[in-house]
């Protein structure tokens, strides 16, 4: 990568002489203007405002969501959204990429520094796109892959028949034991029996830290690649609140919008030997033009994630989740593994004689957002989903702390028992913690 050129171009940006032919300099106001949208298209503006109100008035416990900073939203609403830049910095198919090159280089440099990785690809459109590209980099259709079984917390991209993964590869699923913990003996046995080309560790509904060293050992034992799908946890890793898969996995894929609190998007990290294969698997194999506005927003988020404030945030997310899990046990829920190491909690609602779908509906009716999820070995299987999945990443961003967690659990308990006054108390609580206190002043 031509570093000298980067430094030179940075200097041009700082002096405001970067844009060709006297175009806008840093002093020019950015065109994103919500008032303009309201004037031009009040119907759509109304939807956006209503969504802001909805996000501000719910107790947002969906484990995969968060509230990005105003800086990240500004990057998303920037003219970088206009730019075609197929290829990689310094090697694009289109003209005029010098400045978006800077944005992508910043994102890559910040991601590699943040996670101690040799290489980062910041172009994946989403977590699923990152997983697809990591498979494309290492596998061919028909290869055998060992991954978390879907009823035990695996993601769609880990072998669902409805997804490309299950259609194009031979997935074998490993699961958890009766205590909800990954059964590493089973992983080893299945690996020896099926000799997979890759092992995927990482899940969409697993509350505990993974033993990446154990996965690495098993992968080495059978000569498999190790792919870590850290979609949920990479933000905690950035903040030093969860162990990093980077030293162990051949390829790490992730989202940038869950605990990492950036824009909706994906990220792949790997060592130098696989860098070219990963890059080619993203573009041109599985994607076209990168979303440069999202890449700029990722750069902003990576910078935020490198601050002491973010580390404090990540640790608070976990402290909140631990307290919330404890309090949910007291509300009579079957908290899987009895607690959590992360932002994420799964809990059976069978003891309340309801299933996950009903629980989700009752919570939503009170303004509390949770997902339904399967609970392995639940003795009361109903509809495959006998539990709920929730997370503390978003509420922690809003500023809810350890004082509020027992209160949150109490509200969930009341909502599940259909206490009709719960909604008003939820509204009163969240009113004190607006996610965007300064949004759209004067509307
Ligand atoms: C969320 C998630 C993904 C997919 O992310 P999208 O951005 O929704 O495509 C992939 N893998 C795991 C484990 C996830 O939790």
From TrEMBL:
Q: Where is this site: Plays an important role in substrate specificity?
A: 257
Query: Keywords, A to Z?
Result: Amino-acid biosynthesis, Cytoplasm, One-carbon metabolism, Pyridoxal phosphate, Transferase
Gene name, please?
glyA
Where the record annotates domain Serine hydroxymethyltransferase-like, the positions are 38-412
Q: What is this protein called?
A: Serine hydroxymethyltransferase
| NCBIfam families reported in the protein's UniProt record | PRK00011.1
Q: Which organism is it from?
A: Actinacidiphila acidipaludis
Pfam hit, one: SHMT
Recorded catalytic activity of this chain's protein: (6R)-5,10-methylene-5,6,7,8-tetrahydrofolate + glycine + H2O = (6S)-5,6,7,8-tetrahydrofolate + L-serine
Q: Bias regions of kind Low complexity — which residues?
A: 18-30
Q: Which SUPFAM superfamilies match?
A: PLP-dependent transferases
